[in-house]
Write a sequence for this structure.
C-alpha cells in the first residue's frame, strides 16, 4: 500500500512511496499532526541517485518491524534535496552546528512536536552497530523523551533554534589586491596530488572551479608548474575509470586516489562543468584529446540524459541493487569483446586496458587506459563493449528538470559550439525550451518534470546560472534578446536576494545565506558576480558596483584562503585586472575563436567595420586583422 508520497512528482519521493514508513511530503498537515498528537518529527533528506540513501532505505525504511514502531510514535517527512535545496541547506547548517563537521546525504533530522530540531545525523544503521547508534534504538529513546516531556531535550531544541537564527553582525573588509593570485597558486600546489593529479586525497572530486581559475591564471602569465597541475589532472580524470570510456560522461567522483574506481552516479552539473573545462583546455593547450572528452561528454548527455531538449538531473550508481552493475565487465567479457573487435595482440591489449582475471572492482573490471592516447583498435572495441551493455538494465534516471543544472549544460554546449557549430544549434533549442518551460508569466521556477507545471519558485542559483547561460548565448550568437533577458533576471535577483554585499540563497520559509565556497559546483554568489561584471561591461557600469560590494563583503575570507573560493577568486582577479570589450560587426566577431587575455567580452556593433579594443571608459585600438587582436589586447593592459 502506497503512502502519501505516491501523489508527489519528485522521482526521489516516488522511490519511497511503497515503504512501510507512513511518509509525508513537506507539508503543513504533517507538522499540524505532530503538534496535535505530541509526536516527534523525523525529517529525511536525500536525492534519487544517492547510493547511501538507497542503503538506508533498504536497511531501515523497508524494515517492517522498525516501521511499525515509528509509525505509531513519530511523524516522518521525506524531502528531495534537489527539489527543495533551501530546506536542505538549512538542515545541513544544523548538522554542522551540532556535529562540528559537514553533513551529507541521507540527512536525518529529529525535531520536537513543534518542529524545533535537536538531533542531526546522516546514514544510520537499523540497529546499534559498533560505535554507530541504530535507528531503532534512537527512535525508541526519542519517542520516550518526547512522551515524557523531557525538559533537557526541549531546552536544547530552544537553544539550537536561537543559534540558527541569522545574526546581524558588522562585516569587516580588507583590501583586495593581486596577492590573491600568489596565495591561490600556493594553496593549489599544496593540495595537488603530484602522483595522480587532482586535489587532496580520496574521495577525489573534479574540482572544476579550481582548474578553471588556474587556467585563467595561466593565460595571464604561463607557469610550467601550474600548467602541469592542470594537465595532469585533466589527463588523470579522462583516461577512464571516473570517465566512462564506453558511453562517455563523467561519474560523480573517484572513491580512491588514482581515478580508477568511481562512485558511478552521473550528475548533469558535473558533466556540464567538465564538458566546458575540457573544451576550454583543448584550445588553451592545443590538445585535441581534450576536445574528444568534451564532445563525448556532450553526446552522452544528449543521448542518455536529454528529454525534449531538456536535461535530466542524474542517473543512479546502482542497478538492481548493485553499485556499478551496468558499467563493469567480467574479464571474460572483455576478452571476447577484444576478439570480436579483431584485436591481434590480446595480451598487449589487456595490459593497455589495465585489467586482470581477478578484476579491479569487486571481481569485475572497470575499463581504463594508461594515457589519453587510444590504440587504433579501441573504437572497434568500444562498439563491442557497447553491445555487451545493450541488454543490461540502465540505471534509474531522475528526470527532474533543474533550471541551474540545465543552464550549466546549455552554456557548455555554447562553449563547445564555438569549435563544432552543431552544439550551438542544440544549445539554442535547449535554452528556448528551458525558458518556455520554467519562466512563466515572468516568474522563474526551480524544478519540474516534462509536461508538468512547475510549482517551486526559483532560488538564487537558478537566476545566477540562467543569467550566465543567457550572457554566453549572446556571446555566441549576438542576439540582443538573450542579453536583455539576462539583464531582467539579474535585476530580479538583486531585488530578491541581494542586501548590502551579502547574498541570500533563499528568502522564503527558510532564509539561508548563499554559500561562498564552490562545493559540488561553483557558488551561486560567484556566478552572480560574474554576470554582474559581464553586464557592467556590456550594458551599464552600475552593475560593477554590486559586483565589487559582493567581493568586498567576503574579502577577508578571499584573501586568506582563496583556494576554498575558486570562482570568487577568479572574479576578484578579473575585477582587479579589468575587462576588455571587443566591438565589431557580428561577422567579424564570429571569427574570434581564441584570445590570450582571459577577460574579454564580445559586443556586436554594426556601425563599425573593424575590430575595436575597448576598456570600461575608452577604446584603445582598432584593426581589421583578427590575428593582431592578441598583441593589441596585450598593449592595452
Amino acid at each position: 500500500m502506497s503512502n502519501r508520497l505516491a501523489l508527489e512528482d519528485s522521482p526521489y519521493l516516488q522511490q519511497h512511496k511503497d515503504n512501510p514508513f507512513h511518509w509525508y511530503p513537506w507539508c503543513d498537515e504533517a507538522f499540524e499532526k505532530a503538534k496535535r498528537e505530541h509526536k516527534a518529527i523525523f525529517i529525511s533528506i536525500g536525492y534519487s541517485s544517492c547510493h547511501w540513501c538507497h542503503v538506508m532505505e533498504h536497511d531501515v525504511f523497508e524494515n517492517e518491524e522498525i516501521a511499525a514502531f515509528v509509525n505509531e510514535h513519530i511523524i516522518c517527512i521525506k524531502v528531495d534535496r534537489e527539489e527543495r535545496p533551501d530546506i536542505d541547506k538549512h538542515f545541513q547548517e544544523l548538522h554542522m552546528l551540532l556535529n562540528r563537521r559537514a553533513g551529507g546525504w541521507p540527512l536525518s533530522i529529529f525535531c520536537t512536536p513543534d518542529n524545533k530540531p535537536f538531533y542531526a545525523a546522516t546514514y544510520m544503521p537499523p540497529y546499534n552497530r559498533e560505535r554507530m547508534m541504530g535507528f531503532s534504538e534512537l527512535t525508541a529513546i526519542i519517542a520516550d523523551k518526547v512522551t515524557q516531556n523531557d525538559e533537557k531535550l526541549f531546552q536544547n531544541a530552544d537553544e539550537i533554534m536561537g543559534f540558527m537564527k541569522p545574526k546581524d553582525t558588522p562585516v569587516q573588509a580588507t583590501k583586495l589586491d593581486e596577492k590573491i593570485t600568489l596565495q591561490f597558486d600556493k594553496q593549489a600546489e599544496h593540495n595537488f596530488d603530484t602522483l595522480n593529479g587532482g586535489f587532496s586525497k580520496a574521495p577525489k572530486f573534479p574540482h572544476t572551479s579550481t582548474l578553471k581559475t588556474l587556467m585563467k591564471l595561466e593565460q595571464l602569465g604561463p607557469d610550467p608548474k601550474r600548467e602541469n597541475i592542470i594537465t595532469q589532472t585533466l589527463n588523470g580524470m579522462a583516461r577512464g575509470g571516473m570517465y566512462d570510456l564506453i558511453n562517455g560522461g563523467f561519474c560523480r567522483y573517484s572513491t580512491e586516489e588514482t581515478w580508477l574506481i568511481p562512485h558511478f552516479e552521473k550528475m548533469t552539473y558535473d558533466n556540464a562543468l567538465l564538458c566546458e573545462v575540457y573544451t576550454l583546455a583543448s584550445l588553451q593547450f592545443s590538445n585535441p584529446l581534450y576536445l574528444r572528452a568534451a564532445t563525448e561528454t556532450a553526446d552522452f548527455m544528449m543521448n542518455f540524459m536529454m528529454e525534449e531538449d531538456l536535461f535530466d538531473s542524474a542517473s543512479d550508481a546502482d542497478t538492481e541493487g548493485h553499485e556499478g552493475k551496468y558499467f563493469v565487465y567480467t574479464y571474460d567479457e572483455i576478452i571476447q569483446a577484444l576478439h570480436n573487435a579483431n584485436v591481434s595482440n590480446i595480451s598487449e591489449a589487456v595490459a593497455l586496458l589495465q585489467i586482470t582475471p581477478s578484476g579491479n572492482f569487486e571481481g569485475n573490471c572497470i575499463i581504463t587506459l594508461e594515457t589519453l592516447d587510444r590504440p587504433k583498435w579501441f573504437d572497434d572495441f568500444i562498439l563491442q563493449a557497447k553491445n555487451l551493455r545493450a541488454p543490461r538494465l540502465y540505471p534509474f534516471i531522475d528526470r527532474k528538470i533543474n533550471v541551474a543544472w540545465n543552464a550549466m549544460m546549455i552554456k557548455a554546449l555554447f562553449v563547445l559550439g564555438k569549435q563544432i557549430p552543431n552544439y550551438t544549434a542544440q544549445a539554442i533549442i535547449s535554452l528556448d525550451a528551458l525558458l518556455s518551460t520554467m519562466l512563466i508569466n515572468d516568474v522563474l521556477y526551480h524544478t519540474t518534470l516534462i509536461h508538468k507545471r512547475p510549482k517551486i519558485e526559483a532560488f538564487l542559483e537558478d537566476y545566477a546560472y540562467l543569467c550566465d547561460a543567457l550572457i554566453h548565448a549572446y556571446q555566441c550568437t549576438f542576439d540582443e534578446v538573450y542579453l536583455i533577458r539576462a539583464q531582467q533576471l539579474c535585476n530580479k535577483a538583486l531585488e530578491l536576494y541581494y542586501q548590502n554585499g551579502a547574498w541570500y540563497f533563499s528568502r522564503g520559509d527558510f532564509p539561508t545565506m548563499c554559500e561562498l565556497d564552490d562545493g559540488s559546483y561553483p557558488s551561486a554568489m560567484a556566478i552572480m558576480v560574474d554576470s554582474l561584471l559581464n553586464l557592467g561591461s556590456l550594458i551599464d557600469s552600475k552593475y560593477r558596483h554590486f559586483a565589487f560590494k559582493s567581493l568586498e563583503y567576503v574579502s577577508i575570507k578571499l584573501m586568506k584562503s582563496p583556494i576554498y573560493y575558486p570562482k570568487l577568486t577568479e572574479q576578484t582577479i578579473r575585477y582587479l585586472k579589468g575587462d576588455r570589450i571587443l566591438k565589431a560587426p557580428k561577422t567579424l566577431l564570429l571569427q574570434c575563436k581564441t584570445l590570450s587575455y582571459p577577460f574579454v567580452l564580445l559586443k556586436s556593433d554594426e556601425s563599425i567595420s573593424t575590430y575595436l579594443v575597448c576598456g570600461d571608459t575608452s577604446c584603445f585600438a582598432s584593426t581589421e586583422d583578427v590575428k593582431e587582436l592578441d598583441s593589441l589586447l596585450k598593449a592595452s593592459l
